[in-house]
């Protein structure tokens, strides 16, 4: 009888482990690039000094060729292990270091970028289309970042050092820079740069972008042409300044407009604009000129309309006084999350400014000064839309009364895309200033609003 041999089980092979793809990091984003750039920059500056080269007198083309030749000489002399493409990247960066603003140069010239936020030398973020994302640019170290910052603010007459660790300045292109450094900033220099379009949005462009619909466009046009006093309310980066710039295009060209701002940001598309900007004081506070001082002075400059870039302090009393004493059609922006919050904030600011009257008299002044509040918001998708237009109707039982004329109601379509819808709530505006525009509002299909 033969013995039965049990066959060995087939050898089991383990499934192959997944191979993660190797992600190639661009040379410009490596530590090696930063080290080479830092050494090459010092080499270049030494040669500029030794050769007594006047870079400022050269054309950009001549400067570019000089930087290329010096970069090649540096790579050869120091035997830097880089190829031709990497050497070109170092040369381009050096050119921006020498004639521009280093890593910020491309960001500052990109028209699509709205904000540049720097949280230390390695961490740079940008905002575009209302969405925040990390940028690929970075600095070599804190000294590199401080060198670029000081180059930006030097022509503005501002300082950034241990004795002046904070600076807020208007850039020549109309943007705004805020920087704070050690010891106030714990993790290195913190910089916020707000950029503004060279050509501000027009009402037609905002309509095309979906900031509001046609009936609201007609109402906004009537508010400005009818010389209603309008307050634009919204949160940070919600589009208040852009909307104010757009509404100013409705102002008749034969009127004189005076703008008052802490940092000049408005660029009104109007032929007769007087722009005023506040001034910080010296070390002892001497020489300071506040927005309140400027608003008070603007009343003596024969304004038809006064536009306050942002109401956030004692200037609220002068603004309310101007709106109540014949300067109809004035406009301003304010930080608030809703029209009701906007009214509360006005009361709070007036209290901080030392208003001595009763609560009822203050509310009556606010109700008689402000005709409409336009609320604008930035949605989760980054889009800016007007979420409410509210009319201030008076005071009842010591409460400022209002009625909402339009309300934004987002909805999701069948393709799971967010859509906008503005609902007219059917109330009739009480403001007598709109009487000449009733027919225009009817033709815009405002329904019972007209």
From TrEMBL:
It comes from the Bacteria. Residues 99-377 form the Bacterial type II secretion system protein E domain. InterPro entries: P-loop_NTPase, T2SS/T4SS_dom, T4SS_GSP_E_ATPase. One of its GO terms (molecular function) is ATP hydrolysis activity. Transmembrane segments: none annotated. Pfam families: T2SSE. Signal peptide: none annotated. PANTHER family: TWITCHING MOTILITY PROTEIN PILT, TYPE II_IV SECRETION SYSTEM ATPASE. Belongs to the GSP E family. This is Pilus assembly protein CpaF. It comes from Stenotrophomonas humi.
């Amino acid at each position: 009888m033969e013995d039965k041999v049990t066959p060995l089980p087939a050898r089991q092979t383990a499934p192959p482990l997944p191979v993660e793809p190797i992600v190639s990091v661009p040379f410009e984003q490596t530590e090696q690039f930063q080290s080479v750039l830092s050494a090459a920059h010092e080499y270049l500056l030494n040669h500029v000094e030794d050769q007594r080269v006047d870079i400022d007198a050269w054309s950009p083309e001549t400067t570019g060729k000089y930087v290329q030749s010096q970069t090649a000489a540096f790579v050869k002399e120091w035997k830097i292990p880089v190829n031709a493409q990497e050497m070109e990247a170092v040369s381009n960066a050096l050119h921006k270091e020498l004639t521009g603003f280093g890593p910020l140069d491309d960001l500052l010239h990109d028209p699509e970028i709205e904000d540049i936020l720097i949280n230390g030398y390695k961490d740079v973020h940008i905002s575009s289309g209302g969405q925040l994302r990390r940028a690929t640019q970075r600095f070599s170290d804190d000294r590199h970042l401080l060198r670029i910052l000081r180059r930006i603010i030097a022509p503005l007459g501002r300082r950034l050092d241990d004795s002046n660790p904070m600076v807020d300045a208007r850039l020549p292109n109309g943007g705004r820079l805020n920087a704070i450094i050690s010891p106030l900033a714990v993790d290195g220099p913190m910089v916020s740069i707000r950029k503004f379009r060279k050509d501000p949005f027009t009402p037609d462009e905002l309509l095309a972008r979906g900031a509001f619909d046609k009936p609201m466009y007609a109402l906004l046009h009537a508010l400005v042409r009818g010389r209603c006093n309008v307050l634009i309310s919204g949160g940070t980066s919600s589009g208040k300044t852009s909307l104010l710039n757009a509404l100013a295009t409705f102002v008749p060209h034969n009127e004189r407009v005076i703008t008052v701002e802490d940092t000049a940001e408005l660029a009104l598309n109007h032929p007769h604009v007087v722009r005023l900007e506040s001034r910080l004081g010296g070390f002892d506070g001497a020489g300071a000129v506040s927005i309140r001082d400027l608003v008070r002075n603007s009343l003596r400059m024969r304004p038809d309309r006064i536009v306050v870039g942002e109401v956030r302090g004692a200037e609220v009393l002068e603004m309310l006084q101007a709106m109540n004493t014949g300067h109809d059609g004035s406009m301003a922006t304010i930080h608030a999350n809703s029209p009701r919050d906007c009214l509360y904030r006005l009361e709070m600011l007036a209290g901080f400014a030392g208003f001595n009257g009763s609560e009822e008299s203050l509310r009556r002044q606010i109700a008689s000064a402000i005709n409409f509040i336009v609320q604008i918001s930035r949605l989760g998708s980054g889009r800016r839309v007007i979420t409410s237009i509210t009319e201030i109707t008076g005071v009842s039982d010591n409460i400022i009364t209002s009625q909402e004329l339009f309300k934004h109601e987002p909805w999701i379509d069948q393709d799971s895309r967010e859509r906008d819808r503005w609902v007219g709530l059917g109330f009739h505006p009480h403001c007598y200033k709109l009487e000449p525009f009733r027919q225009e509002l009817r033709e815009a299909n405002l329904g019972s609003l007209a």
